[in-house]
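Entry:
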Amino acid sequence: MLSPLEPCIALDQVQRLNPLDYPGWDDLLATHPDSTFFQSTAWAKVLQKNYGFSPSYFVVLREDRLLALFPVMEVNSPLTGRRGVALPFTDSCVPLDHDSLIQKVAIPDVMGFGRERGWKYLECRGGKNFFGNVPAFQTFFTHELKLFRDEQYLFARFESSTRRAIRKVEKLGVSIQLSQTLESVREYYSLHCKTRKRHGLPPQSFGFFRNVHEQVLSAKRGMVVLARRGHDLIAGAIFFHFGDQAIYKFGASNEAFQDLRGNNLVMWSAIKWYAGKGLKTLNFGRTSVTNEGLRRFKCGWGAEERTSEYVRYDFRHNRYVIGKDGASGWHNHVFRLLPLFASRLLGSLLYRHVA
């Protein structure tokens, strides 16, 4: 393991480090033009503190520059086994590359480390092209919006249905709050739990969101956006940001006020704020290829649609494997029927095992 005080070594030689033990990791990360929030210290701290995952980031450095990065968290669960994931609970985490270093040296080192550690598999969430002609484990849509300081120009790029929805909710007296406080996280979480129940999924524990507040929001790396009509909370979202990119990570809404289209005003408010701060893009996260409604919502903002292909290498069978999106299935019906307290309890117990 590299000591943070050791000098950088020769180009094309991979070092394995823990970003939580490396002073100035975020400054180093920012030297790569494709770096994102999910490779930052804040996200590594959330995952390590909340779930106990162990970070091993494979890097190639040249003096004070980051040339290549393959970040991995080791998930070690008595229920689901030990494996490497790049990265857990992350919609997309494409390795950072320079001059094909990921293919030449980083992937072989990660694979060797995985075998030494006895991983069941290595999963990389994005960047299938680095692995050659292999099958995708899962495929999702991603959407990225280019930001411009000119609000009128931004607004004109949206689809007409999106513009109408924004105008409608603005006329109805819905107010917006942008915040980084723990209280705003609590308010968002109340909506989050109800929305997850409606979708048939368990919510993450509040402890997870408290860690998001401590490591991300308190460090000015993200914000909560809440929409209200009078005293009623009707929609909310949590955004992260790093460098010149913002990420829409969590969203929730009050079903009783769905017709108000509060989510549209939440998103528009975040877009305007980030554009005004000079950020260049807003990433809308991943979308299941079967979720046409969510896909239409994201495309309605004029975002560019791409596919994100995950890769999983099974060490037990020495081959790349194909899987399916596990977000939908019989379990959705079960979690819709469970009382909210029971769903929250199961979520707090299960998430560290599924990663």
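The first helix runs from residue 25 to 29.
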